Structure formats: structure tokens, C-alpha cells
């Protein structure tokens, strides 16, 4: 019933998005799939067992969903859902993925998915993307697809207040289902894009996966059918092989049309029947047989390291035959497993709080690995490369449960947590995101996963959870088969001291047979709440109404201001934020190392009298959280809660602001976790590049230097705590914004008690400009790092500019125009990138300045041509403006996004914060009509000319070590030198193919 974390690892999206999913049975924590498996001894595949007659009936589908089948075998689902209003998700689910590829098609299932966006019978070339963008639909966010081992899913989100666009969406799905053109010219152009997606995914995690993946699926096609495929196949596959895969597997019986949204379901059902009824099954369709995964073999051990791996991870996979999730009995199994994992994960989390523990974190889950194989998964980060000790922890804690069982208090907390989660889900179901619902429907289609609805699930879990016994849970792991089918996988940095395979086997044997001590539980925190003696409340001394925002503003006696915006956008959500001016900018440079980590340390230490472990137990069954941060320009609070738990969240705020804990044990544990990350982080080329670019663009300012182990060793707990207390000793300058399902009468006494009592002494603080400035002039920064044949380019331009609201609007419009145009040029025309990121913005504090940042990954051979093309496009816009078609796209996207944002708690929280932070008129700051009036060619032209500042340009290039070694003229990694003058005309040549020396594909 829950998507596998492993499956998510190999999902490929046409535009970068990944499918939404509900969590696997891993309550209270998450098992990491960062490391998979390595070859085991060859074994014969265990055939997939034939279906067994169910002992209890399949749960009926949610009555809100209409499921039907056309005469040609195509399945469809239609569900009316009015959140968000005037929107619909239209998906095409294809029961075919990379595991069905023939040997000469490796990577072509994914390539076919790409080609669906590059020409169909009714929408030639880029017409699908072009049409949808003109309708206000963003490529990537609302128009996307993904390919996985077993399925391919196409995703559209369309407005429903325009019937033409809605029906055109079904036309697109219909063409995807049976009329993709595979224009030879477009096929050849798209090869470069798919290769760039392959290149983007290369790195240490992929290399370790390539060495370890085969053991997880040895003896199965899954071992050699990663969706991204082989680069040589992608480069050389003729059109007919793409067409063959499409014709073989894209057929009615293999597909489902899914429509969820704010529409007339009868009309939608008729539209589906009218458009898809003519699809025909082939005369001799290929049979899709289950693909078995062997899971009856001896313990297999895989050990792999990589010089770019930033941490050490151990994982244990016990493979088991896939269990269906269609009946009430199946759901009961899910509940039982969720309770088990919640309690195991709570223990692992508690162990990780010990500074001497060998783990940075750990998790346990059971999850679907493939359509035919599930897994009992345990994983942990090994602190300081202590692989053997970390591995022993994973086995020892399972053995401890077997020997002594869980405690009643643990089960009680787990039940409360699980029921609370399902209560929240049920309350929000009528306002759940379209993507979440559509994704669940795909699982019903692909795997017969029950979809009775959240209310059915809540009623079931309320009945099942109290009846689950400790005895049943204590021996649950035994039912998963034990050591048969077990894989132990280890991935680590190159300098890690790793055990050999024999030593790993000995560790496993010793940990599973050792006689252990019973688990000691610290017990429950009294039900009195987080604050035993609530403070004397303050009072609201003034109330005003912000008519433009329809918000109430309270001023408390201590000076704290509270802005409240009640909404009904979500049923069970309240979001809040708070701030006051000052922050770490007021801390002298000598103390900055302590100040930068102070908030992080305090948040890791619990609150008040409760350490982190006790606090977690106190919050069991509640949905409430809050954190305090010391930002550069101010102190900040962020939090959220469901309405019933808002008092708990405010108690947490009160404690974190007024009663931070001095916890040496928590501080030591935090330092050890940080140390483990910092020791190897720059081994990752992307991090090394980002840190060196930040050094250049900030003038290597002390307060922009990346964290290091040496810096960590300087942090003093008492000094950090003193700075934290000092910055929060006077809170009278705070403003809080609350948005969500609130009642003013219920909120006011809580605000008066927990915010009105905050200390205030009249200190008038303001942030200080610490002197961070963007560099002047043209600079080229070349960073040499990485074993893969891939580069990253960042073009960053910035200079002082007076802030204005229109200037901010123009920057956003320019970003949107460039996002579309550079995607067309660099991706679609040149085939040189998978994606490009654009960010134009104007800052107000601490200095007013403009910035334009363009970044993309690419083949090292194409750096110069792509860089030149990007700058040339901006020059062209600065000279001639932009066409009406682009203006239409931007206008519609802004308008459609505002429709959705107006019903979003997050948007209102952000906009209210901005308005009250900067003392803006809310109506003027959020005036959409004023924004749309700025969408003109003249304004875009002027913005491009203003932001394209090639006299203040930092060109950053990440070059792989092998490529740099070939070119003796490449500057040293640490050198910064003047950049070459900009070309006078754009370079439009096609990108070169990857070097023959590029590393092999997975």
C-alpha cells in the first residue's frame, strides 16, 4: 500500500518531478535506500506464486471514485474533488516500464516517455508544451511524466473553468496513448536531452548503486533494467526500436485514464469514452508475465566505497515475496507492521542521541521493492566509519525485541501516533492535493492496492490498533523469513576502514545470538502538558482589522504583535511564523562561530525540562512543532499544528524562547553528527563547487564561509547558549503571523498566555550591515572536481539597484520569460541540457541590489557553446524584447498560480510576513492586476538590459578532473581570473556527443 523507497530511487521524470506517494510502513522514522546491494552467489529464481484465493474480500473502492472499463479493455477512474477549485489532474497510467525492455532497448521505455512531449498526431513537435504554457500550465510543475521499473505515468494539471483546455487535456492523453509520432528529427534532438539526464544522475551514489544493485535483484531482469538505461543505447537506438516498445506495451489493456478534479463526472466519463474507445489491441499482444526476484538464498554481503561518497551507510534487506494490499486483512498487516516499525525507530532514534553511539541515525521499514518482491529494511549512518558497530546496532535491536519484547508504554505511544496520523489524513481528505489522490489511484490500477478512502482507513485503524497485542509484535520479525534472502550492503568514502565480508558475517552472527539486556524506557511525561505552570498571561491592548488581507491584528501589552488570518483552505492545519530584527548581525565576528550554530544546538536539545527524547515522547499523538532560529538579520520562529494541538505548539514556542536547555549530552551528539557530515562533504563535486562559488560571490566574507570540522571544534556550548539567551532576552519586537483553521475567540487566550508573557524590556534592536558585497568586475571561477564526465555552469550577475515594487515584479517576470526561452534554446534546440534554472531578484536588506543567476549541468565539451547561447539569448531580449506568445504564457501562468495561491495557507503566511516585515500596504503588494500590467515586451526588454550586467559577471564552471587534466590551459581550482569578453553573436551549433571515454552507464 506504500511506494517503495527503492522504487523511488529509480523513477525518472521527463521534467524533474517525482511521483507523490504515501509513506511506507515505517512509522516514526524512515529507512534510507542510499545503499542497495551487491552480487550474491548465483541462485535459481523462485517463481512468483500464483494468486491465492483471498481469505477476506477485497475492500470496495471509495464510492467517490468511478472506475470503469471501455470495450477495448482500457480502464478509467473519475473522481470529483474540489480542492483546489477549478483544477483537474488528468493522468495516463501505462503498466509498462523499463523491466519490459528487450536487450536492445535498455533505456528506451524512458526515451519513449520523452518522445511523447516531442510530437503526436494532433500536436506536432513542441505543440503540447506550447499549448499548455499558453493556458497557464507550467512545464515540469503541471505537465510532466515519470518512468520506473514497472510503469510509466503521464501527468497533467489543467484548469477546469476553460472547457476547451480541459478537453484538450484529454486529447493530449489520447495522443500519448496511441499516436506519438516519433518524428526522426525530434528523436535525434531528444537523444541529447536524455543523455544529459543520464549525466545528471551520475555520481558517487550511482556508482555505488551500479556495484551493489545486481545483488538485490540477481537472477532477475530488474538487475539490468534501470530506467535510465545505457548511454550507448540512447545514442544509437534507431527510431524503430522506440516504436517497437511503444506498440508492444502502449495498448488499452495496459493503460488507465485517471481524472480527478473540480468537474462534472458524467461529462468527463463521456469524454473519456468518446476519445479512447477507438484504441485497439494488437492482434497478437505480447504477454506481460510477472518478473520474479530470487529471495531464497544465503546471506549476501556487498562492500563498496567511493572517493566522492560523503558518508558511510549500512543497510540490511531481508527480501520476501510480495504481499498484496487489497483486503482488510492486508490493511491489518500494514497497521501491525507500522506499530512495530514505529517502536523500533523510536529506540533507534533514542540510541542516536547518545554521543558515543556508532550511528548518526537509523530506520526500519517494510516496503515494496518491486511488483514481485517486498523487503524488511534496516539502515543506518555509520558515525566515523564505524561500520561494524553500526551494523551490530541494527541486528542487536531486532534481537532485543525478540528476546524481551516491547514495553506497554511504547505500544501506547505508537498507537497514539498512528491513530493521530490517520485522523489528520481523514480530516484533510476532501482537501487533499490532486497529485496525492491520482498517485494512489495509479497504485490501485497497477497493484490492486485498496483505496477505500481515508475515513474507512481511520475507522479500521481505530478498531485494529487497540487489538494488536505485544506478543504479536514481539515476534513479528520472525514472520519475515530471517536470514534467507538477506543482503547486507555497505557504502562508504574511499578512506573508510571497512570490514571484510567474513568479518561482516561474523558481526551479524554475533549480534543476532548475543544475550542482551532488556530495553529501559524512561517512561511518560505527565499529561500536564509541556508547561507545568503556565505563565501569567498578558493582555491584548489593541485590536485592528487589516481589510485588504481580512486579517485581525492584536497588539499585546509587552509589545508583541500578532496577525491572524483564519481560513478554511485546510481542515486540520495552522501555520505560523514570527520574527524580530537583530539576529547574528549584532554578534561580533569573534563570536560568529558560536552564533551561527546556536539555534540549531538549542533545537536539538529539547525544551525546558525535557530533553529531546522526553520531548518526543511528550508529543506522541500530537501534531505540533516549532523551531527557533537566529538568522542573520533577525530572530525567527517557524511552526505548525493541527487546531486541536495549537496550545502544545505555543507551549513549545514559549519554552524554546524563554527556557533553552543546556544539555551537554545533546550538544556532544549534535557535534558528532555534524562532524561526520563535514569530514567528507566537499568530496561531492556539487558541494565543492557551490561553496567556492559562494566564496567568490560574497567576497570570501567570514560570515559566508562554509562550515568545517575546524569551525565545529571552536563552537562552545556555553557561549552559544549565552548568545541565544541574549538575542531572546527581549522579545517585545516580535511579530507573529498565524494562518489556518482558527477561531479568534479560542486563539486569543492562548496568545495572551504564551506570547503575551514573553519578556520585553524595551530594547530597540535592528540588524547591522556586516559588509557582505557582491564582487565588482568580470570573474571566471573554475573548480576542478569529480570523476564523472559532467560539468556545471553558473552565470551570476549582480550590482546595486534601488528596490521598488515594480522592480521586484519585473524581476519575477524576467525569470519566467527566461525560464521558457532558455529551456527552448538549451534543451529543445541544442539538446545540451536536461534543465536550466533561472533566478532574477531584487533584495532590500541589508543592501539593495539586483541579481540574475543562470545555472545548468552539461557535457564538459559543451560548456562554452551553452554559456554563449544563454548570454546571447538575454542580449537578444535586451535588444528587441520578447514575442507576444511568451507574454501570453507568463500572463496566464501568473493568473493561474494566483488562483491556487489564494487558497493556500503557505502563500498567505508568506505574503503577510512580507507585508508586515517591510511595512507594506498588503493590497498594493499583492495587486495581481498591477503585476500583469508589467508583462509587456518593453518592460521585459528593459529588465533584460538592466539585469544582464556583463561588467559584473561571475562565470563559474565545474570541470571534471579528467577533462581538466587534458587541458593544460585550465586555471587551478582556486584561481579567479578575468572572464573572456562576451561573444558578439550566439553560438547555435549542436552539442557535441559525450566523449567515448565517458564512464559506462548503470
Verbal overview:
This protein is an alpha+beta fold. The chain has four domains: 5-20 and 64-276, 2-Layer Sandwich (Cytochrome Bc1 Complex, Chain A, domain 1); 300-513, Metalloenzyme, LuxS/M16 peptidase-like (Cytochrome Bc1 Complex, Chain A, domain 1); 540-754, 2-Layer Sandwich (Cytochrome Bc1 Complex, Chain A, domain 1); 779-977, Metalloenzyme, LuxS/M16 peptidase-like (Cytochrome Bc1 Complex, Chain A, domain 1, 2-Layer Sandwich), CATH 3.30.830.10. 39% of the residues lie in helices and 18% in strands. Strands 1-5-6-4-7-3-2 form a seven-stranded mixed sheet, with helices on both faces. Helix 11 (387-404) runs parallel beside helix 16, helix 12 runs antiparallel to helix 14 and helix 17 (592-603) crosses helix 23. The protein is globular, with a radius of gyration of 29 Å. Mean pLDDT is 90; it is low at 1-10, 13-23, 27-54 and 972-1002.
Query: Kindly state the mean pLDDT as a whole number?
Result: 90
Residue fraction in strands: 15-25%
Structural class based on helices, strands and sheet pairing = alpha+beta
> For the largest beta sheet, what order do the strands appear in spatially?
1-5-6-4-7-3-2
- Global Rg: 29 Å
The gross shape turns out to be globular
Based on the coordinates given, report the CATH architecture of the largest domain. 2-Layer Sandwich
CATH topology of the largest domain: Cytochrome Bc1 Complex, Chain A, domain 1
Beta strand count: 25
CATH superfamily of the largest domain: Metalloenzyme, LuxS/M16 peptidase-like
Quickly name the level 1 CATH class of the largest domain.
Alpha Beta
Report helical residue fraction: 25-40%
Q: Which stretches of 5+ consecutive residues score pLDDT under 50?
A: 1-10, 13-23, 27-54, 972-1002
Biggest sheet character: 7 strands, mixed
Distance N to C terminus? 29 Å
Number of helices: 32
Number of domain modules:
4
Amino acid at each position: 500500500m506504500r511506494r517503495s523507497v527503492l522504487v523511488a530511487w529509480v523513477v525518472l521524470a521527463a521534467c524533474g518531478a517525482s511521483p507523490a506517494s504515501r509513506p511506507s510502513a515505517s512509522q516514526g522514522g524512515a529507512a534510507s535506500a542510499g545503499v542497495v546491494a551487491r552480487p550474491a552467489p548465483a541462485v535459481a529464481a523462485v517463481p512468483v506464486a500464483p494468486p491465492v484465493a483471498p481469505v477476506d474480500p477485497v475492500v470496495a473502492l471509495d464510492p467517490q471514485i468511478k472506475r470503469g472499463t471501455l470495450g477495448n479493455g482500457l480502464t478509467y477512474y473519475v473522481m470529483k474533488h474540489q480542492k483546489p477549485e477549478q483544477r483537474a489532474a488528468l493522468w495516463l497510467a501505462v503498466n509498462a516500464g523499463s523491466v519490459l525492455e528487450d536487450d536492445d532497448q535498455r533505456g528506451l521505455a524512458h526515451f519513449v516517455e520523452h518522445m511523447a512531449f516531442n510530437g503526436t498526431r494532433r500536436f506536432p513537435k513542441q505543440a503540447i508544451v506550447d499549448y499548455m504554457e499558453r493556458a497557464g500550465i507550467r512545464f515540469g510543475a503541471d505537465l510532466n511524466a515519470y518512468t520506473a521499473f514497472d510503469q510509466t505515468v503521464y501527468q497533467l494539471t489543467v484548469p477546469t473553468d476553460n472547457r476547451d483546455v480541459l478537453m484538450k487535456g484529454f486529447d493530449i492523453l489520447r495522443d500519448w496513448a496511441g499516436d506519438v509520432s516519433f518524428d526522426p528529427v525530434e528523436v535525434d534532438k531528444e537523444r541529447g536531452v536524455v543523455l544529459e539526464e543520464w549525466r545528471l544522475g551520475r555520481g558517487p551514489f550511482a556508482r555505488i548503486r551500479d556495484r551493489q544493485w545486481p545483488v538485490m535483484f540477481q537472477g532477475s531482469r530488474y538487475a539490468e533494467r534501470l530506467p535510465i538505461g545505457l548511454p550507448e543505447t540512447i545514442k544509437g537506438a534507431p527510431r524503430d526500436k522506440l516504436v517497437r516498445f511503444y506498440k508492444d506495451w502502449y495498448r488499452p489493456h495496459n493503460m488507465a485514464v485517471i481524472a480527478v478534479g473540480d468537474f462534472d463526472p458524467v461529462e468527463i466519463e463521456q469524454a473519456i469514452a468518446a476519445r479512447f474507445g477507438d484504441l485497439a489491441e494488437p492482434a497478437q499482444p505480447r504477454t506481460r508475465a510477472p518478473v520474479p526476484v530470487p529471495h531464497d538464498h544465503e546471506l549476501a554481503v556487498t562492500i563498496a566505497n567511493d572517493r566522492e561518497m560523503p558518508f558511510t551507510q549500512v543497510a540490511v534487506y531481508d527480501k520476501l515475496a510480495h504481499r498484496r494490499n487489497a483486503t482488510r486483512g492486508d490493511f491489518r498487516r500494514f497497521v501491525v507492521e507500522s506499530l512495530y516499525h514505529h517502536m523500533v525507530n523510536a529506540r533507534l532514534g533514542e540510541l542516536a542521541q547518545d554521543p558515543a553511539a556508532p550511528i548518526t541515525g537509523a530506520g526500519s521499514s517494510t516496503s515494496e521493492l518491486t511488483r514481485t518482491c517486498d523487503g524488511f529494511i534496516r539502515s543506518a549512518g555509520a558515525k566515523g566509519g564505524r561500520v561494524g558497530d553500526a551494523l551490530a546496532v541494527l541486528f542487536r535491536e531486532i534481537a532485543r525485541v525478540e528476546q524481551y519484547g516491547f514495553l506497554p508504554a511504547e505500544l501506547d505511544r505508537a498507537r497514539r501516533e498512528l491513530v493521530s496520523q490517520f485522523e489528520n489524513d481523514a480530516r484533510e481528505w476532501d482537501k487533499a492535493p490532486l497529485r496525492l489522490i491520482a498517485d494512489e489511484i495509479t497504485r490501485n490500477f497497477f497493484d490492486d492496492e485498496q483505496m477505500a478512502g481515508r475515513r474507512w482507513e481511520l475507522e479500521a485503524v481505530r478498531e485494529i490498533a487497540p487489538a494488536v497485542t505485544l506478543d504479536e509484535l514481539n515476534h513479528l520479525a520472525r514472520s519475515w523469513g530471517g536470514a534467507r534472502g538477506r543482503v547486507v550492503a555497505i557504502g562508504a568514502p574511499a578512506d573508510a576502514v571497512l570490514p571484510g565480508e567474513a568479518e561482516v558475517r561474523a558481526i551479524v552472527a554475533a549480534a543476532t545470538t548475543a544475550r542482551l539486556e532488556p530495553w529501559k524506557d524512561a517512561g511518560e511525561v505527565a499529561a500536564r502538558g509541556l508547561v507545568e505552570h503556565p505563565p501569567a498571561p498578558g493582555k491584548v491592548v489593541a485590536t485592528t482589522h487589516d481589510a485588504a488581507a481580512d486579517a485581525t491584528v492584536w497588539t499585546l501589552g509587552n509589545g508583541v504583535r500578532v496577525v491572524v488570518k483564519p481560513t478554511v483552505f485546510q481542515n486540520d492545519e495552522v501555520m505560523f511564523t514570527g520574527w524580530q530584527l537583530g539576529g547574528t548581525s549584532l554578534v561580533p565576528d569573534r563570536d560568529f562561530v558560536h552564533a551561527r550554530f546556536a539555534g540549531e544546538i538549542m533545537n536539538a536539545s529539547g525544551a525546558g525540562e525535557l530533553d529531546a527524547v522526553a520531548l518526543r515522547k511528550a508529543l506522541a499523538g500530537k501534531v505540533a512543532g516549532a523551531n527557533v532560529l537566529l538568522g542573520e538579520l533577525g530572530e525567527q520562529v517557524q511552526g505548525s499544528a493541527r487546531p486541536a494541538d495549537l496550545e502544545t505548539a505555543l507551549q513549545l514556542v514559549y519554552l524554546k524562547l524563554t527556557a533553552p536547555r543546556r544539555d551537554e549530552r545533546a550538544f556532544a551528539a549534535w557535534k558528532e553528527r555534524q562532524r561526520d557530515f563535514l569530514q567528507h562533504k566537499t568530496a561531492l563535486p556539487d558541494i565543492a563547487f557551490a561553496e567556492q562559488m559562494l566564496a567568490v560571490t560574497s567576497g570570501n566574507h567570514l560570515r559566508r564561509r562554509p562550515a568545517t570540522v575546524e569551525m565545529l571544534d571552536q563552537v562552545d556550548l556555553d557561549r552559544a547558549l549565552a548568545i541565544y539567551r541574549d538575542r531572546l532576552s527581549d522579545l517585545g519586537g516580535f511579530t507573529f503571523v498565524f494562518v489556518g483553521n482558527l477561531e479568534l475567540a479560542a486563539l486569543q487566550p492562548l496568545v495572551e498566555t504564551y506570547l503575551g508573557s514573553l519578556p520585553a524590556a524595551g530594547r530597540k534592536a535592528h540588524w547591522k550591515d556586516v559588509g557582505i558585497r557582491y564582487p565588482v568586475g568580470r570573474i571566471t571561477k573554475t573548480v576542478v572536481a569529480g570523476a564523472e564526465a559532467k560539468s556545471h555552469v553558473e552565470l551570476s550577475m549582480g550590482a546595486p539597484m534601488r528596490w521598488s515594487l515594480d522592480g521586484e515584479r519585473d524581476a519575477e517576470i524576467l525569470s519566467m520569460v527566461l525560464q521558457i526561452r532558455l529551456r527552448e534554446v538549451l534543451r529543445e534546440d541544442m539538446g545540451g541540457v536536461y534543465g536550466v534554472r533561472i533566478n532574477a531578484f531584487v533584495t532590500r536588506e541589508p543592501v539593495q541590489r539586483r541579481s540574475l543567476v543562470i545555472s545548468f549541468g552539461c557535457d564538459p565539451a559543451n560548456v562554452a557553446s551553452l554559456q554563449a547561447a544563454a548570454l546571447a539569448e538575454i542580449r537578444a531580449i535586451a535588444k528587441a524584447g520578447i514575442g507576444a506568445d511568451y507574454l501570453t504564457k507568463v500572463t496566464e501562468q501568473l493568473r493561474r498560480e494566483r488562483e491556487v495561491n489564494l487558497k493556500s495557507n503557505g502563500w498567505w503566511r508568506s505574503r503577510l510576513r512580507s507585508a508586515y516585515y517591510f511595512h507594506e500596504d498588503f493590497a498594493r503588494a499583492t495587486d495581481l492586476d498591477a503585476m500583469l500590467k508589467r508583462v509587456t515586451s518593453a518592460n521585459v526588454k528593459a529588465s533584460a538590459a538592466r539585469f544582464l550586467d556583463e561588467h559584473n559577471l561571475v562565470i563559474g564552471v565545474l570541470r571534471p578532473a579528467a577533462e581538466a587534466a587534458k587541458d593544460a590551459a585550465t586555471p587551478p581550482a582556486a584561481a579567479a581570473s578575468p572572464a573572456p569578453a562576451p561573444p558578439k553573436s550566439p553560438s547555435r551549433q549542436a552539442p557535441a556527443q559525450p566523449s567515448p571515454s565517458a564512464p559506462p552507464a548503470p
